[in-house]
Structures are given as C-alpha cells and as structure tokens.
C-alpha cells in the first residue's frame, strides 16, 4: 500500500519501509468528526468532505511516537516529508 501510494511513480522504488503503524486516537477522531460535521453544516460538498490519507516519513521512531501522542497541527511542526 505504501509503495503504490506514491504520487510520483519514479519515487516508488526510492524508499524502503521497515514497518508501518496505523494510529487511531479517539480524541483526534472525535475532533475530526466535529470538524467534518461543521463543514457539512456550512454547505461543503461530499466530494470536499471525502477523507484522504497521507503518510509521514520520520527519521527517528521517537518523532513518530511524539506525533502519535500529541497530534500534528497545521504550521506546528518542522516535519515536512509526506
């Protein structure tokens, strides 16, 4: 799934992954659901409300653990590799 999710086919073979972890955080999920309800009430279309996914690439496992615990907000991190 990670290999096939690359935006550029030329990058598909450029990365090797040792493991991927799906993080499910109930607090963050409830925030996302409230955000989506507010956008739907404001008239956003189903296409605009459709969920998409991105993968973050970390240099160190500790960085990933920190994001899993505290979340990732727009303009709040130096992480820039999706």
What do these coordinates show?
With 82 residues, this protein is mainly alpha-helical. The chain has a domain of 45 residues. Helix content is 37%, strand content 0%. It has 3 helices and no strands. The chain is globular and about 40 Å long. It starts with 25 loop residues before the first helix and ends in a 12-residue tail after the last helix.
Mean pLDDT: 78
- Summarize the helix and strand pattern as letters: HHH
What would you report as the Rg, rounded to the nearest angstrom? 15 Å
User: Helicity level, as a percent range?
Assistant: 25-40%
Main sheet: strands, sense, barrel: none
- Summing up helix and strand content along with how strands pair, one would put the structural category as mainly alpha
Q: DSSP helix count?
A: 3
Q: Specify the overall morphology.
A: globular
Query: How many β-strand stretches?
Result: 0
Low-confidence runs of at least 5 consecutive residues: none
Sheet-strand content, in percent, reads: under 5%
Beginning-to-end CA distance, first to last residue: 15 Å
Protein name: TASOR protein
Domain TASOR pseudo-PARP: 40-82
GO cellular component, one term: nucleoplasm
InterPro entries: TASOR, TASOR_DUF3715
């Amino acid at each position: 799934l990670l290999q096939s999710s690359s935006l550029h086919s030329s990058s598909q073979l450029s990365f090797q992954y040792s493991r991927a972890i799906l993080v499910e955080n109930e607090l963050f999920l409830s925030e996302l659901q409230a955000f989506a309800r507010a956008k739907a009430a404001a008239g956003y279309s189903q296409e605009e409300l459709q969920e998409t996914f991105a993968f973050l690439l970390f240099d160190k496992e500790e960085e990933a653990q920190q994001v899993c615990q505290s979340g990732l907000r727009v303009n709040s991190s130096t992480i820039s590799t999706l």
